Amino acid sequence: MSTPSRSHTSLKDYYRWHARIYDITRWAFLFGRARIIHLAASQVDRPVSILEIGCGTGRNLAALAQRFPQTQITGLDLSSDMLERARSKVQGFGPRVVLLHRAYDAPVATAAKFDLIVLSYSLSMINPGFAEVLRICKTDLSPAGVVAVVDFHDSRWTWFRRWMGVNHVRMEGHLLEELDKHFAGQVCQVQQAYGNLWQYLLFIGRCR
């Protein structure tokens, strides 16, 4: 594992405090998390292995394990505080769900690659580095694999974008542009939140 960057250290410090309140507060902001799993299931048939980058408190990992009961699932996160909470959510699935404490700065797969890679509200917080994450995803995906992204997209309000920036989130429509460079979109939806205060993105794609 490489030496942590300044941005990695900043995110670790952020989640050290937010991990304890994450699940009880983020439901009002992180829309589309259940929907992206449903959409991914329509695009990949019986995946052998799944990777979630930025798995946080494990909410999606548990949902993925229930949706794909025969699949090996790996959750990766930079924050040990978030992973501590994730362990309690996935312990009932036994060794089928594995947690990795590291940055996604190099491929995870060894011999067998992943049939599905999920990024749920993590990509917009990786600044700089989101483009490199997507390049590494291409290395980690199996030939028929898909990447599934749900994340903040954009806001017409400068003050709101600035406020989100305080919370390490960049939302300037940049993610979709970068996704289109690397992946052919099978599903691409931009949805409104709170009367178009902001928009969020649902994207399923295969390597170009």
Task: Describe, in short, the structure shown.
This protein has 208 residues and is of the alpha/beta class. The chain is built from 8 helices and 7 strands, in the order H-H-H-E-H-E-H-E-E-H-E-H-H-E-E. A 7-stranded mixed β-sheet has the order 3-2-1-4-5-7-6, with helices on both faces.
General description of the model:
- Strands 3-2-1-4-5-7-6 form a seven-stranded mixed sheet, with helices on both faces.
- With 208 residues, the chain is an alpha/beta fold.
- The longest helix has 13 residues, at 6-18.
- It is built from eight helices and seven strands.
- Helix 4 links the parallel strand 1 (49-53) and strand 2.
- The protein has a single domain (6-207), classed as 3-Layer(aba) Sandwich (Rossmann fold).
- The protein has helices at 6-18, 22-25, 33-43, 59-67, 80-90, 130-140, 158-166, 174-182; strands at 49-53, 72-77, 97-101, 114-120, 141-154, 183-193, 198-207.
- Helix 3 (33-43) runs parallel beside helix 4 (59-67) and helix 6 (130-140) packs parallel to helix 8 (174-182).
Question: What is the CATH domain class?
Answer: Alpha Beta
Taking all Cα atoms into account, the compactness measure Rg is 16 Å
Largest sheet: 7 strands, mixed
CATH architecture: 3-Layer(aba) Sandwich
CATH topology: the name is: Rossmann fold
Task: List the uncertain runs.
Answer: none
**Which structural class should the secondary elements be placed in?**
alpha/beta
Structurally, the number of domains stands at 1
What is the CATH homology-level superfamily? Answer: Vaccinia Virus protein VP39
**Spatial strand order of the main sheet:** 3-2-1-4-5-7-6
> Kindly, what is the distance between the CA atoms of the first and last residues, rounded to a whole number of angstroms?
28 Å
Let me know the number of strands.
7
**H and E order:** HHHEHEHEEHEHHEE
The protein's oligomeric status is single chain
What spatial form do the alpha-carbon principal axes imply?
Answer: globular
Percentage of residues assigned to helices: 25-40%
